[in-house]
Inverse folding.
């Protein structure tokens, strides 16, 4: 003898079948929605600032050099400075000695054992491989 | 003789109710999907670049019909520029995402391709972080996110004052 399933159970079965079928068909469609975006812009690099004119003073064979901080337009100071010394009479560049040689991270230095003569100094800002403009020369300083 | 209702163990009333349930649900499903903006807009696959129109797909997107899960159904625009770069320095850049659709979207990724500023200052001197997350952009509205732009410490003097072109690409899904 065959048992018949009641109408209410049939309705439930139909809904379950329809739900399974419907979701199987609908989910890939809904998951497929996506949008692509695009656009353009630019990134601008700064240029290096020029060094400020240094001031100098001699004490025996030592010369102290002081210069203003150089900054980028956003206010950040540059990483360092290179000090150069020139003969004030003929403009020949001399090798800067201990105290002011190399890349300095300060805005003041004292060069030791400077040879007798009249000298002028400049400072040049640097930022890693970038080099800024050389400052105007200081007034001449005389070492006896 | 084979009987479908008999095979399922359904009486005539049971079979009728089953068919009714099936038809009713599929009708509701059909109406529901038909009203969905996602389906309505499947014909809009042309992407629009910021400031100009283009039929080319955006970066990071594909228009391959074989991969419907990444098919682009619309477009949004990404804009943003930055200044103030120098060696070893990173600056934030605000990206403005604009949604021209009438419904909200969720941007899940934004990538940036950097172009050469010049032959002497190639793109390798610049890096831009990618955005990955959930950025809700309201319909007909815009939203911002921030990425970081950094210049390599090894950037040479030739990169002073350089302008790097940036091209953005992004992906979004319907909110």
């Amino acid at each position: 003898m065959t048992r018949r399933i009641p109408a209410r159970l049939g309705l439930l079965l139909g809904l379950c079948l329809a739900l399974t079928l419907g979701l199987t068909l609908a989910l890939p469609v809904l998951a497929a929605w996506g949008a692509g975006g695009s656009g353009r812009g630019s990134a601008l690099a700064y240029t290096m600032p020029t060094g400020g004119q240094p001031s100098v003073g001699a004490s025996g064979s030592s010369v102290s050099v002081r210069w203003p901080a150089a900054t980028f337009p956003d206010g950040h100071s540059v990483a360092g400075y290179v000090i150069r010394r020139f003969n004030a009479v003929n403009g020949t560049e001399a090798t800067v000695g201990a105290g002011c040689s190399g890349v300095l991270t300060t805005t003041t230095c004292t060069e030791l054992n400077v040879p007798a003569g009249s000298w002028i100094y400049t400072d040049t800002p640097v930022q890693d491989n970038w080099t800024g403009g050389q400052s105007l020369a200081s007034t001449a300083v005389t070492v006896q | 003789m084979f009987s479908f209702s008999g095979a399922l163990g359904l009486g005539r009333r049971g079979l009728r109710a089953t068919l009714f349930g099936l038809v009713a649900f599929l009708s509701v499903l059909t109406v529901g999907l038909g009203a969905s903006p996602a389906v309505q807009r499947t014909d809009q696959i042309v992407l629009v670049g910021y400031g100009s129109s283009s039929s080319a797909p955006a970066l990071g997107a594909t228009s391959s019909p074989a991969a419907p899960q990444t098919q682009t159904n619309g477009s949004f625009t990404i804009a943003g520029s930055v200044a103030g770069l120098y060696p070893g320095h990173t600056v934030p850049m605000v990206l403005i995402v604009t949604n021209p659709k009438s419904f909200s979207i969720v941007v899940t990724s934004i990538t940036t391709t950097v172009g050469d500023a010049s032959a002497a200052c190639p793109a390798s001197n610049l890096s831009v972080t990618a955005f990955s997350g959930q950025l809700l952009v309201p319909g007909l509205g815009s939203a911002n996110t921030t990425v970081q732009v950094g210049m390599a410490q090894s950037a040479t003097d030739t990169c002073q004052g350089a302008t790097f072109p940036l091209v953005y690409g992004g992906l979004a899904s319907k909110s």
